[in-house]
User: What shape does this take?
Amino acid sequence: MTERDRLDPFAASLTFEAGRRVDSGGELLAALLTDIGEACHAAGCSLIGHIKCHAAGNGRAFACSLTSRRTGAACRGAHLEPLEPGTSLEVELVVLVYGLSRDTVDAAVRQALARSAKGSGGDWALCTESHSHSHASGSC
Amino acid sequence: MTPAPLRRSANRAPQWPDPMDLLSFSGFLGSGKTTLILALAKELAARGHRTAFIVNEVGEVGVDQRILRDDGLEVYEITSGCICCQMGVDLVKTMEALVREERPQNIIIEASGVATPDGIADSLSYYGGPPFASTRSIGVLDPTRLEALIEVMTPLIESQIAGVDEIIVTKTDLATGAEVAQARSVAERLNPKAALRTLSATDPVALADLARSLAKPGRTS
Assistant: This one.
């Protein structure tokens, strides 16, 4: 395994509290995934494997996914509904990118969460993080 | 606790009231496996089939299984490892348990994006439950990233293409014509015997057609 095909899976459970109205939960999370992808790219990732999340709250659920900067993020499920102030989303986030250490990915995620909070007027809480062992691309 | 090692299966239970079909989906991370499986699940449900889903994801948090559960599907999850290697024992034990408890007519496996079809087949060779009436392995190929994928991880991508019965080139709405042509060419070169299709999941008619095709029993195991 070389540095460029190193894959350190990153996963986190997050909570978003809307401070003001957000027009679309999907837009919020698509922007977050895009920002994480940009941060990983800037940090030197050799390939985006999959950056994805599942969100649930107020009786609805949706998921968003990013596999490349060119094709952008896409969402499915009830992602078009707005988030009203005071409502929250429980989000499971997975970041699978090649060529970065998990600490670097962790930093990219935290930066993106801070920017998302500032832009949306909401609060992100990173509740739990889990890091499983490395999985080399050719080891299976 | 580490599970007891398995023995490769030679004699399987000879009698089973309902024939079972096994369909496994492999393909790199984000290639479109979950989207295809959701469409297939709808088709199988419309036919009244009992279907069990096994989802194997990289990492300790499963997103794909939550997406499938959002659609009301019964999902068995295997996380924190790959079913083509260190989690092969879990795959076999999960399958044997769900066959016993659920008696499904179909088992659909969504492999992790770093699994190889040959590795999955090797894991499944230890399965000792009732035999399958048919088995098929489907490879899902994202043409928009194929060049980059081959550059970074040639052995994995080639083995994901070479080891399957059918190949589905997805995301044709996002790919250029040249990228789709390249994906077809690579697939035909690495696996000339595999059935090859192209698909845009944004085309509901094409997606439903494909799901109907996949819902038919495959080759005899």
Notes: The mean pLDDT of chain A is 89. The interface with chain B takes residues 4-5, 7, 9-13, 46-47, 49-50, 52-54, 56, 61, 63, 65-68, 70-71, 76-77, 92-94, 96, 98, 130-132, 135, 137-140 of chain A (CB under 8 Å).
